[in-house]
Amino acid sequence: MWGPAKIASAGLNLRNLILNPQSLAFGILAGRDRITAHRSQGEPLIPRFQRLLIVLAQLSLLVALAFAPAILAQGKHHAKDAAPAEADATALMISDLHFDPFHDPGKAQQLANTPVAQWQAVLQSPPSSDQAQAFDDLQKKCNAKGVDTPYPLLTAAFEGMHAQQPSPDFITITGDLIAHKFDCRYKATVSAPTPQEYSEFVANTIQFVVNQLRATYPGVPIYVSLGNNDSDCGDYRLDPHDPMLARAAAAIGDALPPGERRHAEAEFVTGGYYSVNMAPPMLDTRIIVLNDIFFAPNYKSCSGEANPAPAAAEIAWLGQTLAQAHENGQNVWVIGHIPPGVNVYATMKSMADVCGAGTASMFMDASKIDGLLTQYSDIVRLGLFAHTHMDEIRLVTPGGGAADQGVPLKLVPSISPVDGNNPSFTIAKVEPATATVKDFDVFVGSNQTGQGITWTEDYDFDRAYGVTSFTAVAVGSVINQFRADPKAQTGASRQYIRSYFKGDAARELAPFWPQYTCSLANTTAASYKTCVCGAGK
Fold first, then answer.
1. 280 phi and psi, to 5 degrees?
2. Can you say whether the dihedral through the CA atoms of 353, 355, 357, 358 is positive or negative?
C-alpha cells in the first residue's frame, strides 16, 4: 500500500530525475542494455515484458514532464528552507511630530526670510526675551488647546531615537509633520504674507523635519506620509496637484532609496500618495503610502467645497497598485495617517446612542479601503497609521470576520505632547523575507519639553501580550482577550490601558473599555453597532 512515506520517496525520486535529466535517460538505456545482453546470451525474452518496459519508460517520461514545474518549485522551496535565516530588519516608527516653528514667535519672521537649509542656526540661537509671553499670546489668539513640539523637543526626540537604535534599516513617519493651527500662527507672526509664501513655508517646515531626521540617520530610507495638518490651505483641506505637493515632493523623494525617487515624486505631486519598492534588507516588499485626508468625512477642497473625486482617484490607484504587487509576488505595507474605523472617543463624547437612532463617529469611510486590504490580505502584512496620538492596535477583517483573512494595523503614538501625553516612538523587528513584524518596543519620554528628557521602554509587544509576532491572527487573539474581559481586570487589558495614553494611565480609556474593544476589529459603523448592542440591533 502507498502510504505517506512511500509517496514522499517516490516524489523525491521523481524530483531527482527531473533535476538530473541524464538519470532518466540512463535508466531507459540501462533497461535496453539489459534486454540486449539477454539476447546476446541466447536467453529468451518475453515480448510482452519488452513492450511493458518500453511503455513504462515512456510513461515515466510523460509523468516527469507533467510534474516538473511543481517538483522544481518544491526543490526551490526546500532550498529556501535550507538557506540561513535572514537577520531581522529594524524599523523606527514615528508619527504626529507636529513641529512648531512658531514656539518662539520672535523668530518666525526670520525663518520666513531664511532658506530652510539655515533654519537650524536660527532655531538654535538664544530665545527671544519675550518668548514665553509672546507664545502665550499666540496660543490665545489661535485658540490653541495644547503645546505642540518645539525645536528642543524635536532634537531631543531624534537624539533619544538614535540612542535607543543608532542604525535602523528604515524609518516611517505616518503623518502630521507640522503644528496645529499652522495657518493662524503664520499669519499672526509673519508680516504681509502671500499665499505662495505661505505654501513655501509649509513645504519648508516639512522639509526641515525630514532633513533633521536624515541628518540623524544618514543614508537610511525614510517613508513619509502626509497628515490632515500637512496642507497649505487648512486642516483637512487639500487639492490634487496643489503647489505645496510639488514643493514638498523633493524633500520626501530625497529621503527614499535613490532608485525609487523619480517615480515616487511623480506620483506624489498628483495627490500626496506614492508607492515604492523597499530597500534591502527588505525582500520583495512594496510600501504603499496613502494620503488619506481625502477619505476623511470632513475633507474639503481648498475652496471649501465637498469633492469626492480625489478619494475615488486614490482608491482606484490603490487597487491597481495592490493588484500589481500581487501579480509580482510582493509583500506589502500600507501606511497612512488617519486610520480606518470608529472614533470611539468622539462617539462617546457626543453621547451618540449607537444602539438607537445614533451613529458612531468615524475616522473615515473605511469600506472601500477595508475591502481592498482584505481582498489582498495574502500579501498585505501591515497597515501603519496614527492620528489619535495614542498607542493602539486594530484589525481589519472581511465584515469583522475571521482574523486569518485580515490585516493587522498599528497606530503609532505621537511625538507631539499636545494632548498632555508624553512623547513616544516605536522600534520594530521585521522579518525581511515575509515583511512580518515580529515584535516592537515602545519608548516614552520623561517630560513634554525635551529639557533634560530621558527615554525608557514602555513595553515590548510580545512580552506584554504573550504572542510571537504582529500578524492578523496574533492581533486577533489579543483583541479576543480584551473582549472577554469587559471590566479590564486581566494583566493584558491593564497593560493596554496603561500604555494607550503616555503619561496618564487610565484617564481616557478605562470608563468605556467594552465599547472601545468593539472598535478594534469592527471598522464599520454597522459591525461596531452589532458588537456593542448585540445582533438584531
1. -55, 150
2. positive
B/e letters for 66-105, b = 16+ CB within 10 Å, e = fewer, are eebeebeeeeeeeeeeeeeeeebbbbbbbbbbbbbbbbbb
DSSP 3-state of 455: strand
* Set of cell numbers at residue 355: 444602539
CA dihedral 394→399→405→407, nearest 10 degrees, is -30
pLDDT score at 506: 53
Q: Which of 163, 165, 174, 177 is nearest to 92 (CA)?
A: 165
Q: Which of 74, 89, 219, 212 is nearest to 149 (CA)?
A: 212
Q: At what angle do helices 21-40 and 47-82 cross, to 10 degrees?
A: 160
- Please tell me the distance from the alpha carbon of residue 371 to that of residue 49, in angstroms, as a whole number: 61
Contact predicate 317/272, CB 8 Å: no
Cell (9 digits) for 433: 523575507
User: Which stretches within 410-490 are classed as H helix?
Assistant: 461-465, 472-483
> Contact 148/418 with Cβ under 8 angstroms?
yes
Place of cell 500578524: 471
**What gap in Å lies between CA 101 and CA 124, rounded to an integer?**
12
Per-residue pLDDT at 43: 41
Closest Cα partner for 105 from 69, 139, 63, 147?
139
Q: Structural domain boundaries of the chain? A: 9-82, 89-533
- Thinking of the domain 89-533, which architecture would CATH place it in? 4-Layer Sandwich (3.60)
DSSP letters, 510-525, are: GGGHHHHHHHTS--SH
Helix 491-500 vs helix 472-483: crossing angle, to nearest 10 = 100
Backbone Cα Rg of the chain: 29
Q: What pLDDT shows up at residue 536?
A: 58
SS (H, E, C) 363-411: EECCHHHHHHHHHCCCCEEEEEECCCCCCEEEEECHHHCCHHHCEEEEE
* Residue stretches of the chain with pLDDT short of 70: 1-85, 400, 504-508, 535-537
Phi, psi of 94 (to 5 degrees): -130, 150
Give pLDDT, residue 31. Answer: 40
- Tell me the three cell numbers of residue 171: 524609518
109 CB-near residues (< 8 Å, 6+ apart): 189, 190, 191
| 435, 172 Cβ separation under 8 angstroms | no
Confirm if 285 and 330 have CB atoms less than 8 A apart: yes
